[in-house]
């Protein structure tokens, strides 16, 4: 885990394995410092941000690659697929699907992506369970548009 040793000064590795883990930002460090450190990951590893941490994993895994596999396996057109999302680690996947329903944006980048692409992103207008209920109605409408035409 040479990559983990190289990142050790930039955060605390939690749930680490030889092929990945979650890097927490330690007190006194900034998100910008973590972002810069992640640029040193070796080939074959990727990362995504989640809950003010960085998930490090093999580049052949991740949500977007899993979704590509499922879309191919089930012959699903990307524009007919959807995602419920809330954080940075969902943004690559959101770029692959027709609609990304944002339950609650936990990162400024998610809010920015939603503002930049309002056709793809649907933001909950209410918080908590009321927001989830509202989005689920919109999910039903989205799915119904493909089933019913």
Reported by name, the CATH topology of the largest domain is Rossmann fold
- Helix- and strand-based class? alpha/beta
Write down the secondary-structure element order.
Answer: HEEHEEHEHEHEH
Looking at the overall shape, the CATH architecture of the largest domain is: 3-Layer(aba) Sandwich
| CATH homology superfamily of the largest domain | HAD superfamily/HAD-like
Q: Briefly, what CATH class of the largest domain?
A: Alpha Beta
Number of helices: 6
What number of domains? 2
Description:
This protein is of the alpha/beta class and 149 residues long. The chain has two domains: 2-58; 69-147, HAD superfamily/HAD-like (Rossmann fold, 3-Layer(aba) Sandwich), CATH 3.40.50. The protein has six helices and seven strands. The protein has helices spanning 2-7, 31-38, 63-73, 91-94, 108-116, 128-147, and strands at 12-17, 20-24, 45-50, 53-58, 82-85, 99-102, 121-123. It has a four-stranded antiparallel sheet with strand order 1-2-4-3, covered by helices on one side. A three-stranded parallel sheet has the order 5-6-7, sandwiched between helices. The chain is globular and about 55 Å long. The protein starts with a helix and ends with a helix.
Quick description:
It contains six helices and seven strands; from the N terminus they run H-E-E-H-E-E-H-E-H-E-H-E-H.
Describe the secondary-structure layout.
Blueprint: H1 2-7, E1 12-17, E2 20-24, H2 31-38, E3 45-50, E4 53-58, H3 63-73, E5 82-85, H4 91-94, E6 99-102, H5 108-116, E7 121-123, H6 128-147
Parallel strand pairs: 5-6, 6-7
Antiparallel strand pairs: 1-2, 2-4, 3-4
